[in-house]
Design goal:
The structure holds 2 protein chains of 2 kinds. By secondary structure, chain A is of the alpha+beta class. Chain A is about 25% helix and about 30% strand. Chain B is an all-alpha fold. Chain B has a domain of about 290 residues. The chains are: A alpha+beta, B mainly alpha. Chain A: It comes from Piloderma croceum (strain F 1598).
Chain lengths: ~180, ~950
């Protein structure tokens, strides 16, 4: 439960409680403004009844012909507001807009192969692994998590324009591509 | 040579510019210019390279040459665009594109470039005219919308008089309705349309559009359109209709947006609110009571259906009861606490429970007692994560409503022990977590830290802060990335006079980009108190520079995105982007940081006319700004009882938050002194400045003469100053007042100053005859050389006694052992000496003194200076003495012994606290010795001066 509303440029003055979390990157102002200046309807903010910001999603629409899709660039929830299904609501909105406004075939997102919690969550939302992207998160050297730390799963969920589910496949985890081959 | 050959030769210049080697670019340009001395593009590229090399004067000459040719080719215009931007000459950019467009009126691209040049400067009126012209000529609807939003932006501009606003909105309305295609083709056009109707209060028209098939469709997918729709419904008084709509969404579509619940609640009470106080309120009350029951049933049903999945309905039940109570429509006086108990039972294991319940905690009498006993009856455990979270919530909730009689130093101290015990107990739940994760039990460490800070306040006992620091440092060993703990430590270490540790923690928070604006106050507020710049340590000076980068980024980049939003027709974003740019550009934190930078700089550098003139010009700019306070204080956790000030307020340095009033006072202080010391007056400044002046604030005070503006003091300013700062402010105003006539007598005339400057730079752009003599008379720059020098007066008492007064304050503080306050007195005394030096710089040459017969005056401030140096030397010796006693085994021992509350727990071993003690005492020692040495160094420098 929370207020779901558009992400606004001035939210950057107030998103510290979300962005000081270790796993949330604070980009240059140009990053947020470039998304807002092109896909404002794919960027939304969750606000608590108290007025505190809880989390946000930033997305875009891209791709050619049957690859035309909505993409989740950043999805984050402040630590104190986790386990409240906020991510699901934001993803729902992004899917709705990607489907009805942008008429995309699917929505996709990238997640660290080692991040089992997130992968499980997205699977619960109806996403499945489409391919594994090598060294998407940079070459870290083989550390504790090995390849799983640096590789990403590209996860997808088909939208109503893809009733035959052509944009997904069952054996996605075995399809390995280089990070140079993805946008 | 053919055009293609020339192009081939120009290419490498672009490459050099792109790869960041402007020097090479200049060399290539010079070679080519020999063969093509009149080529504008090469000149423009050379100017750009010179701008990059910061050779502004040479760049200006070339830039003006190119502008005079009124060029129209793309490449030159594009290069010139960068040159002019680099020089801050946005107005010339408009003229340039305007000229080009006039010459080629069929060139659509030039037309939009002219439009964008106006957009970048916020020149909305002209922008609107250009857009209209574009629309007439190229018949593209987008240009019509450009003119509509430009009109709206002109109406919203702070420099537009309120009387013009409605007129402009009417114009916008006329324009948008003249569009051949309907606005609902895009959500952004539609939103803009409704926005105009809302401003003109044409709610029926807005309603019709929104209620149309297209309108409904847009609102169902666009949060933005739906937001403004909700607004219109309310403004039109359609509370009930909005309530029905929201209820439908909640029930049929399972929408759990809290805004829908608020709509249902607002509808329920709409009649009571509108008839509140009138006679029919009874009838409305009865009807509402029924409504309330119906809605209650609805919410109960939803709550049952959702269970643990969503907390909207249970929270809505609380809000319903709260509102019913406030209108005396509640039937069951026990309902409130029942609902709160239910809520806790349902959501108590979530971190947000405390925050959710906060608005409902203002209970009284029996309710309060019931609620407290409910919380106390809950069995606390840390067996699993849910229990732990519940336990944290219980403590936070109980703490929030503590009555004043329950808040004594002893009780708080035992609470701290209790919280710490829970903390150490709960750590087992986080065992094995990767080091990047936060401990689920962290809030207990935070609670303990806050209780200890409270004891510090209540008992005025600094050792409590030692305990707080030890607890929080221990917490950090378990949760390395807890920004909350780190920010609390930043405050505590600042209060302990250990700024290097505060800075260390601040840096570990990894503040980036725009966060520099909202968070830098943690370490840069009154940073000059802790700066060791006099000894050559420029840590704080560079911290200011680094934190300021974001403002350059903003002024260079944000307008690009405004232009992009125009290109992409995302009109909804444009006002927000402009607002964002303005708030960042005119940020209080930015300019407070700038003032601190100047304060530190003068302790570090030699006082030269360059320094004085540059800082003066910049501070005068700042003084004319309308500032926005973007500082984030909410980020500090607060678990203090509601009857007390928040943790943020409790831990403010010197108990004063330096905001707009503080900034204004310090700007007055610096401008007063620098203006006297400088030869620049407004007219000279105008001639010498490169680039555009910033937009003036609409505050009528800006139009007043400087002297009047500077000599005023407002309560807002005094409220934000510490007593020592007030004394310093008094001292400066008295000093400036005293020396004013002598400065005015000696200062060369504006014409002479300008002639001198022109001679040096050899620039042809400045013409002395443009300087009308009457301009000089308007300000303090006028001189009457033939007249006798003003009679020398004794220094006013405020000035002559200032240093003795500060010394007395210093001695008082030494007895009370408040370290930061001692630093505060010393740094202000030191600043007073430097300000005296700046203000007497003009009287330094013996010849000047002799010619103007001001020997007596010089004697006068020589004796004040001698006094200042004597006092400061004494302070320095004292600081060094205390510094020596810090950082010894003895002080460490005292520290550790004071931390018995913490060391009583076996989990936190003695060595850990000893290490904290070592770091704190060493940081203090470094601070004291650094400042002591710095002061001594300055004394030596100024006693010879």
């Amino acid at each position: 439960m929370s207020i779901l509303r558009p992400f606004r440029a001035t939210d950057m003055f107030r998103f510290n409680n979300i962005n000081l979390d270790l796993w949330t990157e604070t980009y240059g102002i140009g990053f947020y403004l470039s998304y807002l200046s092109r896909w404002p309807d794919l960027c939304c903010m969750q606000e608590a009844p108290s007025g505190r910001l809880m989390g946000y999603v930033i997305g875009k629409a891209e791709g050619n012909s049957t690859e035309w899709h909505g993409h989740v660039t950043a999805l984050t929830v402040a630590p104190e507001y986790r386990r409240l299904s906020l991510a699901r609501k934001m993803i729902n909105l992004l899917e709705l807009v990607s489907d009805e406004i942008y008429k995309g075939f699917f929505v996709d997102l990238y997640v660290r192969c080692a991040n089992n919690v997130a992968i499980g969550m997205y699977e619960g939302f109806g996403y499945s692994v489409y391919r594994r992207v090598r060294e998407y998160y940079g070459n870290l050297g083989l550390g504790k998590g090995g390849r799983d730390e640096e590789d990403a799963f590209d996860m997808r969920k088909p939208l109503s324009r893809d009733p035959l589910r052509r944009s997904v496949r069952a054996n996605g985890r075995d399809m390995i591509v280089s990070c140079n081959d993805v946008s | 040579m053919s055009a293609a050959a020339l192009e081939r030769q120009i290419r490498p210049i672009y490459d050099s510019l792109e790869t960041g080697s402007p020097k090479t670019a200049v060399v290539s340009c010079n070679k080519l210019l020999k063969k093509h001395p009149k080529n504008s593009l090469i000149k423009a590229l050379k100017a750009l390279a010179l701008v990059r090399l910061q050779k502004t004067e040479e760049a200006i000459v070339l830039c003006d040459e190119v502008l005079a040719t009124k060029c129209t080719d793309d490449a030159t215009l594009s290069a010139m665009q960068h040159v002019l931007r680099g020089l801050g000459r946005h107005i010339d950019m408009i003229t340039m594109f305007d000229n080009a467009y006039k010459q080629q009126p069929t060139n659509e691209d030039l037309g939009s470039q002219t439009f964008f040049a106006n957009v970048r400067t916020g020149n909305w009126k002209t922008a609107q005219q250009v857009a209209t012209k574009l629309h007439k000529q190229f018949h593209n609807d987008r240009y019509l919308y450009w003119s509509v939003i430009s009109t709206v932006l002109q109406a919203n501009d702070s420099t537009t008089p309120p009387s013009m606003r409605t007129l402009l909105y009417r114009l916008a309305h006329r324009l948008i309705t003249s569009s051949p295609s309907p606005s609902h083709l895009s959500p952004d056009r539609f939103h803009l349309h409704i926005l105009i109707l809302r401003e003109l209060e044409l709610y029926n028209e807005a309603h019709t559009l929104l209620d149309s098939e297209f309108g409904q469709q847009l609102c169902s997918t666009s949060l933005l359109c739906n937001e403004i729709r909700r607004d219109i419904w309310r403004l039109k008084g359609l509370w009930k209709e909005e309530g029905v709509r929201a209820e439908e969404r909640i029930v049929k579509m399972n929408d759990r947006n809290w805004l829908e619940f608020l709509s249902v609640l607002d509808a329920t009470f709409a009649d009571v609110v509108s008839s509140h106080g009138s006679k029919s309120s009874d009838a409305a009350g009865t009807e509402s009571s029924e409504n309330i029951e119906n809605i209650r049933e609805l919410f109960v049903r939803i709550a049952e259906q959702d269970g643990h999945n969503d907390r909207s309905a249970p929270l809505a039940l609380l809000e319903l009861e709260k509102r019913a109570r406030s209108y005396r429509l509640s039937r069951d006086h026990t309902a409130m606490v029942d609902l709160m108990e239910n809520y806790f039972n349902l959501v108590g294991d979530k971190a947000c429970c405390f925050e959710d319940l906060k608005p409902y905690l203002s209970l009284e009498g029996e309710d309060q007692a019931r609620w407290t006993s409910f919380l106390e009856s809950i069995t606390l455990s840390s067996a699993n994560l849910s229990d732990l979270r519940r336990s944290i919530n219980v403590h936070a909730l109980l703490r929030h409503t503590l009555s004043p009689t329950q808040i004594t130093a002893e009780m708080e101290s035992s609470r701290a022990t209790q919280y710490l015990k829970h903390y150490l107990d709960g750590l087992k739940l986080g065992e094995g977590l990767p080091p990047t994760e936060l401990q689920p039990v962290d809030d207990f460490a935070i609670l303990a830290g806050q209780a200890l800070v409270n004891v510090w306040k209540l008992a005025d006992d600094e050792t409590q802060l030692y305990n707080a620091a030890s607890v929080l440092e221990f917490g950090l060993t378990k949760s390395k990335h807890s920004y909350q703990i780190r920010l609390m430590l930043v405050r505590i270490y600042t209060l302990l006079g250990a700024p290097s540790l505060a800075l260390e923690h601040y840096r570990a928070v990894n503040v980036k980009q725009v966060q520099n604006d909202t968070l830098s106050h943690f370490v840069l507020s009154r940073a000059s108190t802790f700066s060791l710049a006099a000894t050559g340590d420029i840590t704080y000076l560079s911290e200011c520079i680094e934190s300021s980068q974001i403002y350059n980024t903003n002024s260079q980049e944000t307008s690009d995105f405004v232009v992009r939003a125009f290109n992409g027709e995302k009109y909804s974003q444009i006002p927000d982007f402009i607002d964002f740019e303005d708030r960042l550009d005119n940020s209080l934190a930015r300019d407070a940081m700038k003032v601190e930078h100047v304060r530190m700089r003068i302790t570090h550098e030699q006082l030269t006319t360059d320094l004085i003139d540059l800082e003066l010009v910049e501070l005068k700019f700042i003084f004319n700004r309308f500032h926005h306070d973007n500082r984030d204080f909410e980020i500090l956790p607060n678990y203090q009882p509601r009857s007390l000030p928040s943790f943020h307020e409790q831990t403010l340095l010197f108990d004063k938050n330096p905001g707009l009033g503080w900034l204004s006072a310090f700007l007055k202080i610096y401008i007063s002194v620098l203006q006297q010391a400088s030869d620049l007056d407004d007219t000279v400044e105008d001639k010498l400045l490169v680039g555009d002046r910033p937009k003036q604030s609409i505050d009528p005070d800006v139009k007043l003469p400087w002297k009047e503006r500077l000599s005023r003091r407002s309560q807002d300013e005094l409220d934000e100053l510490t007593p020592c700062e007030v004394s310093f402010f008094d001292y400066i105003l008295a000093l400036a007042d005293w020396l004013e006539p002598y400065h005015n007598h000696i200062r060369p005339s504006p014409a002479a100053v300008l002639a001198e400057v022109t001679k040096h730079t050899g620039s042809k752009t400045l013409k002395i005859e443009e300087l009308h003599p009457q301009n000089g008379l308007a300000t303090n720059g006028h001189t009457k050389k033939d007249e006798e020098a003003p009679v020398v007066k004794e220094a006013p008492e405020i000035v002559s006694k200032f240093f003795d007064d500060m010394n007395a304050k210093f001695k008082d503080i030494l007895i009370s052992k408040r370290l930061p306050e001692a630093l505060h007195v010393v740094t202000l005394t030191q600043e007073a000496l430097i300000m005296l030096a700046i203000d007497s710089l003009r009287f330094k040459p013996a010849s000047v003194v002799k010619v103007h017969k001001l020997g007596a005056l010089v004697q006068n401030f020589k004796s004040i200076r001698a006094k200042a140096i004597e006092v400061l030397r004494e302070m320095s010796t004292e600081l060094l003495k205390i510094g020596e006693s810090e950082g010894t085994a003895e002080t460490r021992k005292t520290f550790v012994e004071a931390c018995q509350l913490v060391t009583a727990f076996t989990e936190i071993d003695h060595d850990f606290v000893l290490n904290v003690a070592k770091r704190v005492t060493e940081a203090r020692k470094k601070m004291l010795e650094g400042l002591g040495k710095g002061v001594a160094k300055l004394c030596t420098a100024y006693s010879n001066a």
